[in-house]
Amino acid sequence: MLALALAAAWGSSRSTQLASATSATRSSFSPNVTNPWFPLRAGSVYVYRGVKDGQPSRDVMTVTHRTRMIDGARCVAVSDLLYLSGRLGERTTDYYTQDAKGNVWYFGEKTAELDAHGHVTSTSGSWMAGVHGAKPGIFMFAHPRPGLSARQEYLKGEAEDHFQVVAMQQTAVVPYRTFRGAMLTKEWTPLEPRVIDHKYYVRGIGTVLEQTVKGGNERNELVSFRRGA
Predict the structure, then answer these.
(1) How would you classify the pairing of strands 206-214 and 219-226?
(2) What is the pTM of this model?
């Protein structure tokens, strides 16, 4: 059944992706995520800058050494701190794992929006596979190619992101450097049907650029990257 998810292309039924994600053999999943398009080596730090909600943003993503068992799979915890106009506005921990074929799965997100005093104002968007009907999804294919698509997460009304591989061998220009041979994907959610995001991934690094191309004006571009030891 896992193979069905990996072969799912644009236009595949949602039920097919649901079935494959829930029936995957998770005992073989590993928190050691080595997929070249989305490697998560412990200790790696990514710094992005851009614009979110009309404010200048700085996003610091750190691959921690922590792991957690979620719905039968051991996952690595990734810390994501979002600063808006110099103030910490959101803190998130994401949980990823990799199957035996090299596909990266997304098993949960714990997020909190903060006010100017550091108090939590919302945890909307948080979900954990196996809790309240939430299901994991494929975040990155082992062998991506144009047309492949999958649902990345699922908690009804809270987390319903999808993505599709659009093109390979693209150029991405960000402050860190200019990359050639990047992969372009698009992301969307039925929760915001008028919004489409584009993401550029580079082998050996991961996400280098994210921007809203329809329904918004957000952008996040890689400024610095330090690979974990």
Answers:
(1) antiparallel
(2) 0.89
